[in-house]
Each structure stands twice: as C-alpha cells, then as structure tokens.
Specification:
Blueprint (H helix, E strand, L loop, with lengths): L2 H9 L23 H16 L5 E6 L4 E6 L8 E5 L10 E5 L4 E5 L2 H5 L14
Antiparallel strand pairs: 1-2, 2-3, 3-4, 4-5
C-alpha cells in the first residue's frame, strides 16, 4: 500500500472493515388491551361520559399489566382502574376493577362481567297516574 492509498483508507474512501452486526435483543413484552377488550371498555366509557359521570381516561401499558384509568376530572386521582394482569389468569381472573382507595371491586375472567360493577343501577320509581 502506498502512502496515498493509506491516507485514502484513513479518510474512509477505501474498503473499510464491515462492523459486526449483532442481532438486536428481542423487545420486552408489554401487556396491552386487544381490540375486543378496548371495544367493551370504550362502550362503557362512552355511556358514562354521556351521563356526565366520567370525563377523561388514561391507558398505561406496563411490563406486567395494562391499566385503563377513568377520571371525573383530569387533575384528580382516577375514580376507577380497569386492570388486565395475565399472571392472574389461572387464579382470580385476568381482569379487575379497582376503586380510588385501592379496593378491588370485582375480579374475573370475563371483562364484560367484571365491568358490570361499574354500570349504573336503574332505579325504578312508582309513577302516579
């Protein structure tokens, strides 16, 4: 190699050794709600917004669970948290509804059944005719 070839190699004009490509580590799994689950949750959310009960929501996707938080005002603590924790699937159930204080209101395997705890009770009144 001549001096000119050596200087061109140092500037990057020559054949550079290829960097060793290592495969990227696999992405860490994140628990998330699927489309069907979000449909069920957002239908309830829409009804409660229409009734003026709820105003805002947040979705947190963590390594071990997914959380749908419901707020009356966005500056407050969440009124309820709808949680999906796959580690509990064979025990108490994947889904749970947690109140503001941390008390679990309902837990189970079927999301629609678990969310019924948040449905407003229909109050029947006697109407004089």
């Amino acid at each position: 190699m001549s001096e000119a070839d050596d200087s061109a190699f140092q500037r990057g004009a020559g054949a550079s050794p290829s960097p060793q490509h290592q495969p990227a580590p696999p992405p860490k799994p994140i628990v998330a709600f699927n489309r069907r689950e979000l449909d069920v949750i957002l239908r309830l959310y829409g009804r409660m917004v229409a009734d003026g009960e709820w105003r805002d929501y947040a979705i947190d996707l963590l390594k071990d669970r997914a959380i749908f938080s419901v707020f009356r005002r966005s500056s407050e603590m969440p009124l309820y948290r709808i949680e999906k924790d796959p580690k509990l699937a064979r025990r108490q159930g994947t889904y749970s509804v947690v109140a503001t204080g941390g008390m679990i209101l309902k837990r189970g395997h079927d999301l629609a059944q678990v969310l019924r705890v948040l449905e407003k009770k229909k109050h029947l009144r006697v109407v004089d005719a």
